[in-house]
Amino acid sequence: MKLFISLVILLAAIGAASADCSYGQRCVHVGESCPHPAVDPWTTCDRDSWCFFSNNPATPYESGNCTAYAKRGEYCDNDYWSCAPGLECFSNEGPASCQYLYFATIGEDCASAFECTNGNDCIDGKCQLRASQEGSCSQTWEDCPYGFSCNRTSDLCIPTLTVGASCSGTRAQCGVGLICSPTNTTMTDYTCVAINSKGLGAACSQNTFSFNLDGRIPDIECDVSQSLLCLENNNGELTCQAPPAITTGNCSTDGCKENNEYCGCPVDSYNGVCALYNTLGAACSESINELIKCAVDNECQYKASGSSSYKSCLYQNCGSIMCDNKCGGQSFSDAKSCGDYKYDGCYAQNSSSFVRPTIFLAIIALVALLF
Ligand SMILES: *[C@@H]1O[C@H](CO)[C@@H](O)[C@H](O)[C@H]1NC(C)=O
Ligand SMILES: *[C@@H]1O[C@H](CO)[C@@H](O)[C@H](O)[C@H]1NC(C)=O
Ligand SMILES: *[C@@H]1O[C@H](CO)[C@@H](O)[C@H](O)[C@H]1NC(C)=O
Ligand SMILES: *[C@@H]1O[C@H](CO)[C@@H](O)[C@H](O)[C@H]1NC(C)=O
Ligand SMILES: *[C@@H]1O[C@H](CO)[C@@H](O)[C@H](O)[C@H]1NC(C)=O
């Protein structure tokens, strides 16, 4: 709960203090003091820790301490002992510990039902549709195996569509690596086309300015290797275009001209620079195409929930592509910052020894308190 409150405070403070630019955070490490975000929103704890504020601050806005997250298998209480991002504090019986949960989709391997997404059952080591559904799927991707999606009219799993198939006016979805895209700017007919494929001037429907590869394949129609984005043309139609020139000057004062840009600030500075959300071009395009191929080869149902977990099909098989993708935006990190942000799934949050001695003592203390 305290973690949740401090997160809310942190987000609120960042929102208020940095309508202009919020990038470039100074980094403090485990055991070091971290300022209250209302006092200094520009300082954060390193990735493996969070800022813990004691229960009864002697003074308002007192500083906290950067406190290490509990790793996989370690004791947790959702308070001081909070699990690292991506792990759940879980107790079946006995003391709770941090575990990877809810990452396996229908047909994937599981050790218990807690590993299956959407409350599905684990039978004979595979996730299967939960018995209570009596054979009916209930959400588009969740209750169907790879190669299928749920027809929300009949509640039956139906095969996904292949490239070139019409995807307007149907309950069927385009398959992995494909996207439902208009055939022209009239936007009446849609077909399944390869993600990241449409050329200059082609019609598109989703003006996504920012995308990530965190357990997902971005839904982008336009060819990233040609550095195209789906933008409105002079007639107000969405087509694949090269983005306009980047706004120059100090954006901390005036902001950026285009809504496909954001204002980034280096650590400890209000000298904002406008940048695209992603680095477009051949290398980024290659990362996306490699990820699609990997998802298809390994039959990952990545549109279901749980795909951003370290234990998901996509991370287990294609993690290196997502973690080393070349689509990241301009870096504003320097020696004072914690480095560039990485997706949670890119950190294996395994504890080296199953239970750390200090935590083991904490458990004994807790058990002693309880009984
Ligand atoms: C941070 O750690 C110091 C030294 O261990 C301690 O005196 C202080 O009370 C801690 N502050 C919080 C907010 O937990
Ligand atoms: C979805 O289910 C409805 C109702 O049974 C059916 O009429 C329709 O053809 C199905 N759509 C597909 C693409 O299978
Ligand atoms: C757009 O496609 C629709 C359906 O395929 C077609 O009827 C229409 O004439 C096309 N419009 C243009 C401008 O090509
Ligand atoms: C940029 O704008 C911010 C906010 O108005 C200001 O604090 C900063 O000094 C400016 N930087 C430069 C180099 O003018
Ligand atoms: C984490 O632990 C699990 C089970 O103990 C093991 O299968 C997996 O390989 C470990 N991952 C890493 C990166 O050490």
Automatic annotation (TrEMBL):
Using the record, list the residue span of the signal peptide; answer none if the entry has no such feature. Answer: 1-19
**Does this UniProt record's set of keywords contain Signal?**
yes
For this protein, the record's InterPro entries field holds: Diff-Dev_Assoc_Protein
Arranged from A to Z, the UniProt key words for this protein are: Signal
Q: What is this protein called?
A: Uncharacterized protein
